[in-house]
Design brief:
Layout lengths: L3 H7 L3 H14 L5 H13 L3 H10 L5 H13 L3 H14 L8 H6 L5 H13 L6 H13 L3 H9 L6 H13 L3 H13 L6 H7 L9 H13 L6 H13 L3 H9 L6 H13 L3 H13 L6 H14 L2 H14 L1 H4 L1 H13 L3 H10 L5 H13 L3 H13 L7 H14 L2 H13 L6 H13 L3 H10 L5 H13 L3 H13 L6 H14 L2 H13 L7 H13 L3 H9 L7 H14 L2 H14 L4 H13 L3 H13 L8 E6 L2 E6 L8 H17 L15 H9 L2 H12 L6 E5 L5 H14 L3 E4 L4 E5 L2 E2 L6
Parallel strand pairs: 3-4
Antiparallel strand pairs: 1-2, 1-3, 4-5, 5-6
Length: 774
């Protein structure tokens, strides 16, 4: 006689299941409720939902176990409405009554709070409130649906609580971000003398990081060692995650090294821990170890790895990661993975590669769009970032969120797209996002960088100021406009309001002092940062100090500061010294600074241009040829100078020497007319800013072809008399153009605002707000 019960239990394929089903029918044993239920469970386990439903429908006798199995089958396959409909038919049509196993599985099918409360009420009416299994499921359900108060109430009303009930409450509180309450429940559990099991440990450990309670985590670890729980894979993974998130990577590594068995979660936890701690190279090495161990990475592994690759700038490994993802089709089908790869390429300065990945994605969410906007914005492609922002709404109908506005506003600031920035501000007001600290900070920064310091200040006074972001933005804005004293006064006000300054605050403050020539005041701020506020200077602070001293002509003091730095100077520090040497014509010290720069950041063409310009200004043409030859040998191309001006809500971009604009001839005519008027009132071209060995008449043409002159001429032609003109330039404005713009402002009786790579210049009545100090 065939043992159908044993055969149904051991069956592993559909190919064997169907003949077994036929044999049951032929033998007449299908009428056995026990066997028909086992057959239903077999089909469910093998993923054949239609056959499971058919078996259920044709079963001549259905016990409550049969109904429970069918409900569980629907839940297992994600058909939650069908599961609830099946439960409803049980109540209406069957002689069987729900039991203590019916409600837990039905509760899993509740996809919203209304259904959850309805099933909870039925469980209460059927008297299952005394069933600890049912009550624990109710706690789980409310926690899963985010109604933690209902979960807590259900837990408190339980007549009897076993370990599973306590674990359910702990897990629910942790999942809903109630770390402090979870710790209180855990403490009560310990007071009652209930032992911990591996579920308890994995439920409570996640609260250690948000509560910054390494002591709690360590105490649980000691308990686990004493009671032999530490060898459990589930528990060890939880400890790796806890130690990593509380900043104790060495302890996480010890747990990892002591493990005999490691699964995917183990590797993901340790790799993620190192990535979050900024130890990207170690994360990449661990990934190699993961592959060698035979554990296959999943989507989460690759997302973490993409972030690590982006942060350490490893282009080669980035392509390897992307290739791995492509082979599995994860980039087009998985939103999270696709977003991570777009972000990775953006941070690797490969905006076009980021766009290609974005275009391949079959499904995109608002985070996908935000990531691409950020990729363009951070790589200097501000116009493209703004275009993507517009397409996101017009083509896809996706409404911007906080992250969208915080991504696109820096792009508006970069090219001076004031009208577009104001339009985004309007959306922020309508959607209530203006009060968001990140959006508000970006808006203040945008207005300041678009030359509207009054609007930036007014907005700063309106937004919440409990965080450092808005303060840092307005202090930086005052700095680039040359208002160093106001920036320092605002810094004092910031402290009076109880807002603690951070590293970024002092970068903004020192930069403001540098632009205003407040050397002694800047030095005092630098000292107070360390002695009063307990902040250690980072490389950006040293770069600000070198820039401050260098601009003021104290080149020896700047070099002495570099020589005594406790950390190795980076390109920002040496670059500040080289820039100061160019301003003051110190060729020898400039050569020293450039020699360090060519070692540290050999691919940055800007340093070659600075040194070449320094040689040219000193008339050392052999030095110019030598530097240019070195740049050519390294296949470096000079960054073209461009300036933009917004006219009639359109940003017009002009390149130095460019002739492609449709109104080129008109612009040249305007430039010639301006030059004649300027010369008539005393303007003399300064040919020392022509960094080429050419004839005198050619030098005058070169100066007139600078991008800022072309943009100013176009602005004058395209706007009514007296209209202020705002120009945005990607490089530092040259001394002759600075002088010429003062004459143009006097001739045209206009305010002309020029924002270059260093600061703002407001030209009015033949004078500049910088006082010729920039």
């Amino acid at each position: 006689m065939v043992d159908f019960g044993l055969r149904l239990l051991s069956c592993a394929t559909l190919r064997l299941a169907r003949p077994l089903h036929a044999l049951l029918l032929v033998s007449g044993r299908f009428d056995d409720v026990f066997l028909s239920t086992k057959l239903l469970n077999l089909y469910s386990r093998l993923g054949d939902l239609p056959s499971a439903a058919l078996t259920f429908r044709h079963a001549p006798t259905k016990s409550v176990i049969t109904w429970n199995s069918m409900i569980a089958c629907y839940v297992h396959h994600g058909l939650l409405p069908d599961a609830l409909a099946c439960f409803h038919r049980l109540l209406l049509t069957s002689s069987a009554c729900p039991d203590g196993f019916t409600f837990p599985v039905t509760i899993k099918a509740c996809w919203d709070l209304e259904w959850g409360k309805r099933i909870h009420s039925l469980a209460f009416r059927f008297g299952f409130v005394w069933n600890v299994f049912v009550s624990a499921s109710v706690v789980h359900m409310y926690s899963r649906l985010g109604s933690i108060d209902d979960a807590r109430k259900a837990f408190e009303e339980m007549p009897y609580k076993d370990q599973g009930s306590w674990n359910a409450m702990l897990s629910g509180l942790c999942q809903n971000g109630k770390a402090a309450e979870a710790a209180e429940v855990f403490e009560e559990m310990m007071i009652r003398g209930l032992p911990m099991n591996k579920v308890t440990v994995s439920s409570i450990l996640p609260v250690c990081a948000p509560l910054d309670s390494l002591l709690l985590g360590a105490a649980i670890h000691v308990y686990c060692i004493k009671h032999g729980l530490d060898s459990d894979l589930f528990v060890s993974n939880a400890f790796i995650d806890m130690y990593a998130k509380t900043g104790r990577l060495e302890e996480a590594q010890k747990v990892f090294d002591g493990m005999t068995d490691m699964d995917l979660v183990t590797w993901n936890s340790i790799i993620s821990g190192y990535e979050q701690a900024g130890e990207f190279s170690t994360a990449l090495k661990l990934f190699d170890g993961m592959k060698e161990s035979g554990v296959r990475p999943d989507r989460l592994t690759l997302v973490t790895l993409a972030s690590a690759v982006a942060q350490c700038g490893d282009d080669r490994t980035g392509r390897t990661v992307h290739g791995y993802i492509l082979r599995r089709g994860w980039d087009s089908r998985g939103i999270v993975v696709g977003n991570a790869i777009v972000d990775m390429y953006g941070k690797l300065s490969k905006a076009e590669a980021a766009r290609k990945v974005f275009d391949r994605m079959l499904v995109r969410d608002v985070i996908s769009w935000n990531t691409l906007i950020t990729s363009y914005s951070q790589n200097g492609l501000a116009n493209e970032a703004i275009e993507i922002y517009e397409s996101m709404q017009s083509r896809e109908g996706i409404a911007p969120i906080q992250g969208t506005l915080a991504s696109v506003l820096p792009a508006c600031a970069h090219v001076g797209a004031l009208q577009q920035g104001m339009k985004i501000h309007g959306r922020a007001v309508r959607t209530g996002l203006q009060s968001d600290v990140f959006v508000a900070t970006c808006l203040i920064d945008m207005y300041a960088k678009c030359g509207r310091l009054e609007e930036a200040t007014h907005l700063f006074e309106q937004v919440p100021r409990r965080h450092t972001g808005p303060w840092n933005a307005i202090i930086a804005g005052l700095g680039v406009h040359g208002h160093g004293q106001r920036a320092v006064s605002l810094f004092s006000e910031m402290q009076e309001e109880g807002v603690k300054p951070d590293q970024v605050t002092f970068v903004s403050l020192l930069s403001a002092c540098s632009h205003a020539g407040l050397v002694d005041l800047g030095r005092r701020c630098f000292e107070q940062m360390q002695t009063v506020h307990g902040l250690s200077p980072c490389l950006k602070h040293y770069a600000c100090m070198v820039d401050m001293l260098g601009r003021a002509g104290r080149l020896d003091a700047a070099y002495e500061l570099i020589a005594t730095m406790p950390v190795k100077p980076d390109s920002g520090v040496w670059g500040a010294l080289l820039g100061a040497c160019r301003i003051h014509g110190n060729v020898e010290l400039g050569k020293l600074a450039s020699s360090h720069l060519f070692e540290i950041d050999a691919e940055n063409v800007g340093y070659y241009v600075l040194l070449s310009n320094m040689y040219a200004k000193a008339g050392e043409w052999d030095g110019v040829d030598e530097v240019r030859a070195l740049a050519r040998h390294r296949r470096l191309q000079k960054t073209p100078g461009w300036s933009s001006v917004e006219v009639n809500k359109k940003v017009n971009v002009f390149f130095t020497g460019g002739q492609s604009h449709p109104r080129y001839e008109e612009i040249q005519g305007e430039l010639r007319a301006l030059l004649a008027k300027m010369k008539s009132i005393g303007y003399v071209p300064d040919y020392s800013f022509v960094l080429q060995d050419v004839e005198e008449d050619e030098k005058e043409h070169i100066l007139s072809s600078h991008s800022e002159r072309i943009a100013i001429a176009f602005g004058i032609m395209s706007t009514s008399p007296g209209t202020p003109i705002c120009i945005y330039k990607n490089l530092r404005v040259c001394g002759d153009c600075h002088n010429a713009t003062k004459f143009i402002s006097k001739i045209t009786e206009r305010e002309i605002v020029v924002r270059d790579s260093n600061r703002f210049h407001l030209f009015k009545d033949g004078e500049c707000s910088c006082g010729d100090y920039w």
